[in-house]
Amino acid sequence: MSILDMTAVGLAKAIRAGEATAVEAMEAVIAQIEKTEKELNCYVTFDKEAALERAREAQKKIEAGELTGPLAGVPVSIKDNMCTEGIKTTCSSKILENFVPTFSSEAVKNLEKAGAVLIGKTNMDEFAMGSTTETSAYGATKNPWNTAHVPGGSSGGAAASVAASECFFALGSDTGGSIRQPASYCGVVGMKPTYGTVSRYGLIAYGSSLDQIGPLAKDVTDCATILEVISSYDKKDSTSVKREDTNFTEALVDDVAGMKIGIPRDYLGEGLDEEVKNAILAAAKKLEEKGAIVEEFDLSLVEYAIPAYYVIASAEASSNLARFDGVKYGYRTKEYEGLHNMYKKTRSEGFGAEVKRRIMLGSFVLSSGYYDAYYLKALRTKALIKQAFDRAFEKYDVILGPAAPTTAPELGKSLSDPIKMYLGDIYTISVNLAGLPGITVPCGVDQSGLPIGLQLIGDCFKEKNIIRAAYAYEQSREFEKCPLGEA
Amino acid sequence: MSKQYETVIGLEVHVELATKTKIFCSCSTAFGGAPNTHTCPVCTGMPGSLPVLNKKVVEYAAAVGLATNCTITQNCKFDRKNYFYPDNPQNYQISQLYLPICRNGSVEIETEEGKKTIGIHEIHMEEDAGKLVHDEWEGVSLVDYNRSGVPLIEIVSEPDMRSAEEVIAYLEKLRMLIQYLGASDCKLQEGSMRADVNLSVREVGATEFGTRTEMKNLNSFKAIARAIEGERARQIDLIESGEKVVQETRRWDDTKEYSYAMRSKEDAQDYRYFPEPDLVPIVISDEWLDEIRAAQPEFRDEKKARYQKEYDLPEYDADIITGHKKLADLFEATTALCKKPKKVSNWLMGETMRLMKEQSVEPEDLKFSPGNLAKLIELADAGTINGNVAKEVFEKIFAEDIDPDQYVEEHGLKTVNDEGALRSTIEQVIRDNPQSVDDYHNGKEKAIGFLVGQTMKAMKGKANPAMVNQILKELL
Amino acid sequence: MANTISDETIEYVGILAKLELSDEEKENAKKDMESMLDYIDKLNELDTTGVEPMSHVFPVQNVFREDVVENGDGSSATLANAPESRDNAFVVPVTVEA
Lengths: 487, 476, 98
Prior knowledge:
The complex is a heterotrimer.
Chain A: H1 8-16, H2 22-40, E1 43-46, H3 48-63, E2 75-79, H4 106-113, E3 117-122, H5 156-163, E4 169-174, H6 180-186, E5 189-192, E6 212-217, H7 220-230, E7 260-264, H8 274-289, E8 293-297, H9 302-320, H10 339-350, H11 353-366, H12 371-395, E9 398-402, H13 418-423, H14 429-433, E10 438-445, E11 451-458, H15 463-475
Parallel strand pairs in A: 2-3, 2-4, 7-8, 7-9
Antiparallel strand pairs in A: 1-3, 4-6, 5-6, 5-10, 9-11, 10-11
Chain B: E1 5-16, E2 53-54, H1 55-67, E3 71-72, E4 75-76, E5 79-82, E6 92-95, E7 102-111, E8 114-127, E9 131-135, E10 140-144, E11 151-157, H2 164-181, E12 193-203, E13 213-216, H3 221-240, E14 249-253, E15 258-261, E16 274-275, E17 282-283, H4 286-294, H5 300-310, H6 315-321, H7 325-338, H8 341-358, H9 370-381, H10 387-400, H11 404-410, H12 419-432, H13 434-441, H14 447-458, H15 465-475
Parallel strand pairs in B: 13-14
Antiparallel strand pairs in B: 1-11, 1-12, 3-7, 4-17, 5-6, 5-16, 7-8, 8-11, 9-10, 12-13, 14-15
Helix pairs in contact in B: 2-3, 5-6, 6-8, 7-8, 7-9, 9-10, 12-14, 12-15, 13-14, 14-15
Chain C: H1 7-17, H2 23-40, E1 64-65, H3 75-79, E2 85-86, E3 89-93
Antiparallel strand pairs in C: 2-3
């Protein structure tokens, strides 16, 4: 068995036992990157020597007994919207082409404390705006299962790097499905925790009220372990929640007897690919066989989540991205006449089309005379959506559904029709609006061999329910292997 | 016959709060320092940084609200105000629009026609911007974020003022209240208190307001008064010549005594406010509000009554001394040391105010310590120095806060009480001025004054004047 | 129901957002915005009378910091990524008219 076949938890165990080293693990990852990266383009920033050096350092500390965390020595890739001290952080945008943060994000610091070793920064949709990783200023990432297809997005580089064994696990961020959807397209496990569970300090904001950092991993055990490590109350993030129950690995039990699982009928209707639907229902069946009580119900309001989301996320983004102006950091246009021309040229040259589209929309919906009709209306809709979930969780422990209506689309097919692309987020977006935790687990492949993802949604702070269901499901079947993920 | 116009004025007063740290990060608010030394990722808008609210800001803002009879919004929030300008690192300012912390207050001012109530529309919390230094020769501006994120409250009045005098009285009242609270030092020159003036004119008797303009860049009471006169005249001129006043923001140029429109196509003044997602709501419980209320200091009226009762000060003295927090503080601290309230009051109302006026020093800029004033009072009272020397020494205390004991010692200023030394000096003076001695004997009483003067001169001012008089008379 | 975005609106939003769009981009932006707004108008089907706008999903409140100075001289980190700096300050085109 190649070292690359190990899970993150398995590798950490082997390193602790002296059967492997952090350096060997990093060398294996580097060899894999050198083999597949040309085709996949998972990374925006990857410095082989620096990565090796970090692994050597970690190994020394492990041997000296200074580094004993649950992920000690395990190589990790970080989505390029999380600040990493001394390492370029671009958000896959030209406007941050040369930005080197002077501090690391809290989630990355927590990972480092647990001993994980940074490989590099993964590609994404520019500023996390997109569902395909095609809006990156540094080229699209390809799906390791079939390179004619997208890996999903916006954490496409992260998902592809896990699937292709270009890392042992990855950190991504999820504003409207940006972890769960690419995890589904790439056949890996991805999880967005309850809003406020992982500190947003150091995460370059897209939609502040929706953004959450989470893990993308090879299996549910890794996912729970990583989440346990990165969850923390952070006094630097005012929206961080003090939680006692972040020992998520406790939920790794193969037992769903009596668990009440609801499948929203609204998720199974028009627009859902037949193969995806069948795979989801088959997965539900498996859980039922294990003793869960599964039934269909009407969640309601599903079709209103996307328009509400685009108003809220675009509005927040138009403000969050105002700071990129060529004054303090990042790209500044070469020739300009006066301040405002400098601003406009810098931003017009530095941002890509999708980012500009959302900044324009966000600026418009907040502008004088429109705030009530759009922004407040969207916040009221959000309140109703939250209520609908509250009602559902009075009856169910877990909501089960697809992560995306289809498997990964072909490259170049999505961007031309933004609304159609946005519709692809229909099953993930409402989870962000309501601040809920959600996990995607692979549940088969379609006829063309592309992975299908099962999404499990929990009530706020009830990650353990979805981890337990995901783990039990995972135990019930053998998973298909990503062809490019073999060493 | 020409028409009569009334000026309608409302003020937006920004006050920098006296916290040690900025509103959303733990950087120092200390004034000065090399550019960008008091900065961190939060107050420079670094990607990934997040704000965390300074609790003291809420307490100061609520305290000012209570002192100005406002209703405290017990469930308030921050909003983002979006506009691009380089002094604002995020290109949005965190402020309050929808639920400001204080609303519906008022303060009372004294006018020539008696007391008048000025309404306060709201008080909100926000962050200050950085500083721009212009190098027009090179065509660049330099941006310093040391002030970025310093906490401000903005006090928005109702359009209740009708003259520059009322505006000044209102500002002085606010300044006094806020200084009493210790919420700010309120220095106009240093920008810790700034006023924007909203002004319109209308014919006397009209019920509708005219179109208003907002004037910025007013950094002294005098500039404010001049700006009000100048803008009133400009608006009346426009109306009389059949033109319209345009609602706009104008910059007052105090040297040219004229205001200039600040409009440009690129400033749309559409701030796209929305609730700040990075900060959570502030809930001020009844208990917390009670604590803030209980911590309110003794304000002027109470203090004045106490000074009359406890220190037996005349009403006149008590009124003047409590007119400024700094004077009241000095009075109490000095009195505590020397236990001579009336003497302290005399020094504050006499020499201190004379020197303040002479040197244009504002009370908040007084530098001397109560300890040194107390020592000086002791020296004078004990007769160690005479009255003239005491005034001379006080000037040094006022300017440099010197230790009077040490100063008197080093400069040999002690009153000479040695009768032998005095007697021999006076004998010499009598010998040197036979004409004056004759005049005295011939009934010219005034001549003795000249001889006293000569003696004092010979003793370099340090003689005990009573003893000089006595010995002179005896010898003559 | 169809929204129409005028040239003036696109121009105005460009000023607010500090984006300078080419003529082609403007045309695309108009079309994009129109179709997005048509889509967003779907929200009007929902009766939200009496519903409080929800900006925060959780009732977290009163997150404060004590008023204690913790940060020292941050100037080198602050200026580390500056496109142009001088005398410890960021340099921008002059912001006052001569």
